[in-house]
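User: Hey, my collaborator sent me this sequence without any context and asked if I could get a structure. I don't really work with proteins. Can you help?
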Amino acid sequence: MTNPLTTAETARYQRHLVLPEIGFEGQQKLKDASVLIVGAGGLGSPSALYLAAAGVGTIGIVDDDVVDVTNLQRQILHSTSAVGASKVQSAGKRLGDLNPHVRVQMHQVRLSSANAKEIVKEYDIVIDGSDNFPARYLLNDSCVLLNKALVYGSIFRFEGQASLFDAARGPCYRCLYPAPPPPGLVPSCEEGGVLGVLPGIIGTIQALEAMKFLLNTGELLIGRLLLFDALAMTFTELKVRKDPACPICGEHPTIHELIDYDEFCGIKKGSAVAEAGDITSQELKERLEKKEEIFLLDVREQYEFDIFNIGGVLIPLGHLPARMNELDPEREIVVHCRTGRRSGRAVELLKSKGFSKARNLVGGLEAWKITS
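Assistant: No problem. I've predicted the 3D structure and written it out in structure-token form, which is a compact way to encode the shape of the chain:
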């Protein structure tokens, strides 16, 4: 104990101090502890807020994104005034206002194989608030290699999952999901939506698991996957066993260093930037103003189209394989979505079926709005 609880902290954490399972000793453990939260979004928001309120001494936040107005429906760390600002800066300010006794370390970077171990090694436990498969496998492998515990959480539409992976005592994320799904098979929250309160429930469970781990109390979710259905208001528990053949935590591991996780998950490099054959929003705008013959194909969902669109035909990405007969392979087709990711996958699909003139709108409608 290098930094004992102050009089002000003793008053602040009084409701903890009267709990026999925490008391002064436990509260001191929390003050001396450090937690890394990867992602200052839907899951990271409630996790960070409750860990800061609870008095965890050091909280690290990793995120390279900025606050968007669409985040505010669920990412409660951020306010309307923070739109356009760095998420880690917004999170740091909010957590500092909530509890000035907590030190917030801001990592305004995209977690990668090059920096993950260097960042993770400084913390006692990691909370996964990411929203993509490469980041989940990267975090899992980093934690296994560094002998760190990882609190897992994921959300989609009305359902969530949570578990705690600690390879020293149980399975890891790879034991549960040995291989990622094919790219595009699992829609993102942007594509499929998410109930705003859902990440609050799962993120709070993640914060709870981290606290129990640090306090060494209660029964952790090691070897258990907790499933939550918000519409049915049910929790279901599944047993997760350690896989002896797991390539990183099994009996004969074959992964000893971090790998290229985009490649492992089948994500095409450069898919978010302009490639040969793509079209920029400025070029499209100029050509439409000249009344050129261009077929616009919107692959978003109906509700997104209703909120904002630039015309054209709406065929959601999931419906595209069954509705290609509605398209003319001889026409130039410009495919667009919100950011260019879904439309990029749509263009790849169309070209594989003979639509050689299909082009992706780089940056999607977000770039279009800036150009306009």
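In plain terms: Residues 198-215 form the longest helix (18 residues). You can pass these tokens on to your collaborator as they are.
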